[in-house]
Design a protein that fits this description.
four-stranded antiparallel β-sheet; Neuraminidase; Immunoglobulin-like; globular; mainly beta
């Protein structure tokens, strides 16, 4: 059941990894890797490598020749180097105690070039004895289908990260939202969990304050306490109406503070309302200087930036240090609806897509310098068109973005984009061509593509595709 599954996530996830110490899982909400055996049981821990639904991962040229296994903390520790292909690799018994670490695997070809990669979510390590760690490995520079299939069909699903290791997948467009079904993908085990008890409502917007979920639809908002299954009405901040943020995107800050930005919704009335959700579940109302519709939002330099969506207000606003309000930036009004926005660095952002409500034209890539003091403007990037709806941008590294969007037929496309010299835009083929998918940044730093319908036969696509940078 849904509640039971999330109870074990809160306490220690014992039904997943056989944990000995209850309560340890709540420390950073990470998995404990120690086996529930006596201290004299020194069974070697093991890393299992899966290539998911890609049977040709090890044989595609250039073929990998060796696999390096590393534990990543502040520094990297080599655990093993073995011939390729590798499925199970022993890591011994002498791992660190009470430490947080992630695990990576990299496969190299005959010329020592990396050709495959895997990365875990952060894990709470209590020694390696009896540990079972699963890594999903795919070809670098491409998309690979993860193990397991989602249970419910969805177009443009909504996603959230729960306890730094679970993906919650619900909502979306169309008939499937009539039933508030929930998929949960366990990124520590790389598996889909069994069918869950439906949510009490289909979220048009949602936020996480573990162990609670805030669910908002057109009828209002409620808290779901996943440790008990109980629901309760949120105490709205003064002069705040949940209707003013329903449909807005949830933006998550590095400290896990979340913002539901009403002005990012693309239908309904313009709104300046922003709901800030602290990690303890406290709700705060914030107000944009200008009401907006179809704006873009992202965290930049630790603050919430909102761009576009208004033909009269400033072209951008940024939250103040206290997170209580916004300051307009000296950019001209920008009525663009539905653009994608991502931080390139602490003072520069990249935008892509979005429609001009007057001409219906779709914009390409452009940048904004947030340090500009006067005569500020968005700067178009020449020869970098991105004429797609539902655009999404993700920062992969200092010089590369991943861009996801849809053609006029709804077909989902995935590109890498060079933000430095050349501004190369290269399409990455989906393993299952689809329409109506959503993309999401995962807790291990990869980007996943979820949902949609197959172009081949209009059937629901249940596989998850991950990009391996």
């Amino acid at each position: 059941m849904f509640v039971k599954m999330l109870i074990v996530a809160e306490l220690a996830w014992p039904s997943f990894v056989g944990l000995c110490s209850r309560g340890a899982g709540s420390l950073l909400a990470l998995l404990l890797l120690a086996a529930c055996s006596s201290s004299t049981d020194l069974t070697s821990g093991a890393i299992t490598i899966s290539t998911g639904q890609e049977s040709d991962a090890w044989t595609t040229e250039p073929a990998p020749q060796s696999v390096l296994i590393e534990m990543v903390q502040n520094t990297r520790t080599t655990l093993a180097k073995v011939p390729a292909p590798a499925t199970t690799v022993s890591i011994g018994t002498d791992g660190p105690s009470s430490a947080v670490a992630s695990f990576e695997a990299t496969a190299f070809d005959a010329d020592s070039n990396p050709v495959m990669h895997a990365s875990s979510v952060p894990l709470y390590v209590q020694g390696f004895a009896g540990a079972e760690i699963v890594l999903f490995m795919g070809r670098i520079g491409g998309l690979s289908r993860a193990p397991g299939d989602l249970l419910f069909p969805r177009q443009h699903p909504k996603l959230a990260v729960f306890y730094h290791g679970y993906l919650l997948i619900s909502g979306g467009d169309g008939a499937q939202t009539n039933e508030p079904a929930l998929d949960i993908y366990d990124m520590a085990r790389w598996s889909v969990t069994p069918e869950q008890t439906p949510l009490p409502k289909v979220p048009k917007s949602w936020a996480v304050a573990e162990p609670d979920l805030l669910l908002i639809d057109d009828t209002g908002a409620l808290w779901l306490d996943t440790s008990t299954g109980a629901t309760s009405a949120p105490v709205a901040p003064a002069a705040f109406d949940f209707a003013d943020v329903v449909g807005g995107q949830t933006i998550v800050a590095p400290d896990d503070t979340q913002y539901i930005v009403g002005g990012t919704r693309v239908a309904g009335e313009p709104t300046g309302s922003v709901l800030r959700i602290d990690t303890d579940g406290t709700l705060h109302a914030m107000k944009l200087v200008a009401p907006r519709l179809g704006a873009s939002a992202a965290i930049v330099g630790g603050q919430l930036l909102v761009v576009g969506g208004s033909g009269t207000g400033a072209g951008a606003e940024v939250s103040n240090a206290a997170g209580t309000g916004f300051t307009p930036l000296p950019f001209p009004p920008d009525a663009t609806l539905g653009a994608a926005l991502v931080a390139k660095d602490s003072t520069t952002v990249v935008l892509a897509g979005g429609r001009d409500p007057a001409s219906d034209a779709i914009s390409g890539f452009r940048t904004m310098d947030l340090g500009c003091a006067q005569d500020c403007a968005q700067i178009a990037i020449a020869d970098a068109d991105f004429a797609f709806d539902h655009p999404q941008l993700f920062a992969l590294n200092a010089g590369q973005l991943l861009a996801v969007g849809e053609s006029t037929t709804g077909e989902t496309h995935v590109f890498t984009f060079d933000t430095e010299i050349g501004h190369a835009l290269s399409e990455i083929a989906l393993r299952t061509p689809r329409a109506g998918a959503s993309a999401f940044m995962l807790p291990n730093g990869q980007v996943g593509v979820f949902g949609g319908t197959a172009l081949a036969d209009d059937s629901a696509v249940s596989s998850i595709e991950l990009f391996f940078p």
